[in-house]
Amino acid sequence: MTNQSSPSSAGTAIELSGISKAFGPVQANSDVNLSVPKGTIHGIIGENGAGKSTLMSILYGFYEADSGEVFVNEKKVSIRNSNDAIATGIGMVHQHFMLVDTFSVLENVMLGAESGEVLKDSIKKAETELTRLEKEYGLHVPIHSLIEDLPVGQQQRVEILKALYRGAEILILDEPTGVLTPQETDQLFKILEALRDQGVTVILITHKLREIMAITDNVSVMRHGTMVAHRKTSETDREELAELMVGRKVRTKADKQKAQPKETKLKVENLSVFDQFNVARVDNVSLDLRAGEIVGIAGVSGNGQSELLEALSGIEAVSKGSFTLGDITIDADNPKNAKEMRDLGLAHVPEDRLHLGLVPSFSAHESSILGYHRDKEFNGPILSKVGNIVNYCARIMNDFDVRPQDPSLKSANFSGGNQQKLILAREMDRDPPILLVGQPTRGVDIGAIEFIHQQIIAMRDAGCAVLLVSVELEEIMSLADRILVMFEGRVVGEIEADKADEKILGLMMANAHKTSPDGEITA
Amino acid sequence: MSDTTMTEEKPKKKIGMAKPPLPAWMDYGVLPLVNILFALFISGIIIWLIGINPFEALEWLIIGSLGGSYELGYTLYYTTNFIFTGLAVAIAFHANLFNIGGEGQAYVGGLGVGLLILAVDQYLPFWMILPLAIMASAAFGAAWASVPAYLQAYRGSHIVITTIMFNFIASALMTYLLVDVMRGKGQMSPESREFAEAGHLPFMHEFMANFGFDLASTPLNVTFFWALICCVFLWLFIWRTRWGYEIRSVGANEPAAVYAGVNPRRIVMMAMLISGGLAGFVGMNEIMGVHHKILLNFVSGYGFTGIAVSHMGRNHPVGIILASLLFGVLYQGGAELAFEYSEFTREMVVTIQGLIILFCGALAYMTKPFVANIYYAITLPRNGKEA
Predict the structure, then answer these.
(1) CA-CA distances (angstroms) from residue A278 to A70, A286, A314, A398, B28?
(2) ipTM for the complex?
(3) Fewer Cβ in 10 A, N or C end of chain A?
(4) B376: closest CA of chain A, how far (Å)
(5) What's the pLDDT tens digit per position in B130-139?
(6) pTM to 2 decimal places
(7) Closest chain A CA to residue B380
(8) Does the beta carbon of A371 lie under 8 angstroms from any beta carbon of chain B?
(9) Quick one: pLDDT at residue A115?
(10) Domain A264-360+431-522 carries which CATH code?
């Protein structure tokens, strides 16, 4: 398998030949070939666990390959650690930023690349260099601001600056858009294009098809540790890439009928949640959730969606306002804990499955009753009915195709998608009238995403009132019937799903949209 | 590569990544054994340095603790106390609490059982006193743990600090009670009066004589059976009841427990009360089983050693029984050694105990990479070729 030659080819920046890497019995990369022409943006796409990150870690010196060769600028190299990588001109922007929050941009860029003993000279040198880089690539960052004062999009630029400052000519970005708003993503893509035009080679690791189509020149698809295809982006499409990633046909958009909403199941009125510093994390939120509809809550993560879910599910106390289920009203004076909320028919798939949704050190059957562990079905007068619990777990694993179907396997040892399916199975199994779902497909493979979306729609069609929180606009748009957008704890707008597009939602997420007097939302 | 068994964590470091975990028998069997051998090896060097043949010393240690019914009786008597304090530390540990207060809880548990017997031994028969005594020792131990537990759960005071302080308070309280309150008129020693026969637990040699066994006279009494029963109960409680489930969920992932509707404060109280109750049974063994009166300093470090016992036993009742037996052997065999060799002082016994705690506790994972590499070297090439 060789890469098709690129028109702008001025030699290859990176060539990997026959790379294999095994972790114990697990073959993470087997016989991987990759060739990236200089001055191009090259996408590497694949599901979680397909081996993308391992491959890039080999390139960046975190791991050594068991076999195979690496060529940088057509010279064979051996990269044993990140210093070697930097010396050969490879820079990496990690998914989670490696920045010191209390340092300024300048200090972060210099860190580890100071010249000489006296800091003053380094600062001067860095300042000149940063100004040059800013001009050349349009990377505008206030260099004397502290990192903690910068928005996420700018923090990412600092990471890119760091790599360029160290002389990187090949930039690897690992899932760079997970934390960005659509507008910030567009800005990032502009920067990447500017970098490419200046001759920098960019390797973009992602599992988002949209980004591959939007920005890359070439794309390589990985599946189960092997390279399954190399394509020119202009000669392929989303459907083909999705099929290559998963190995079978997938629908990238969920099919669903129009919603048939019925009576209101959950009425939230002027709900506020204050944190320990008395800052309103949820600020005066009102919404109605009706049976048979999916209400989506969009927003950049950290704008109060998590706290809203936690308040509604009984984890976090309500500070002000109230919400009503049937004839039960919950407010600051009448709190209910998560168990009581569950008894009222409210099921909750939490945003963070490893933190809230299950106990990683528990076996799957123990995690499969979390929150329902006091049910009669699982308990005798004193002792638990372990047989019942194991059978129950096996049944819901079967219903939701959780693999491996082993109730005694430790929860932590399932893949993200299978952990998520187990939690969904647990929360959906009792046909709750109200279902809160947070980030149902975060870190989940494309094949499982399709299945999870079908299940959520099936719940809606069966008359469940579903509140969906997601930072993935595509997910919100394909699942929700109505979309609310949260910004700094407030609901800043509501829009029917069929009137929404990414542009308008993006503006709403940044609270930069306009609302006409009759409630029409426009850019 | 199977995508069903990988977690979604991205590789960040290259150390020790992505190898299959060691099987349980390696982790719980081989590794502690290697650690004990290490500790014994270092102990052997020290013993050799003071001029004693380490192999002879080892022989004395084993014969002196397991060689006959007398030696075994003493060993199991110590073991009984270690089981109680080990279990006490373990149950708290499952709720992610570090109960350092076993010493004080055992002390006060002894006070409880003693006061009960002093009150009723003239009126009630043994079979009625026995269940009351079990309840009294547990209740007093639990009560002593309840204050630190409350402060942790509702006031955020750290349980390690408060339980340590409560050890000192218990010690001062007992001294006051025995010197100023309970000491009989004209009595020199700070002790209560001797209990009547109905307030004595049968010694093992008395008990077994009923079945025709002739055992040497030792402090070992029927509390030993109660310790074993407690192990079974505690195992059932932790792994086979909804309350144990809640304790473990709070200990392993508190946010998930809150998500499940568990109140972590109640769990802190529950775990600490059970913990204190279990420690209180040391008082029953000592006061009702051995001394037959309330006296000073009968706990003598069992509470602290329980921390090492529980840690070595991986907070599991079976492991705790084995670790308790090991410490029982060290206590009893060490005493025999000190008796046998004049160079071998009481401090040497403490040194060996310290080495065992050091290697099995503080350095428990030091040898793991070696052991794991040997294990992988033996097992992996075969698996690798299959895959």
Answers:
(1) 54, 20, 19, 45, 48
(2) 0.83
(3) C
(4) 9
(5) 999 999 999 9
(6) 0.80
(7) A24
(8) yes
(9) 74
(10) 3.40.50.300
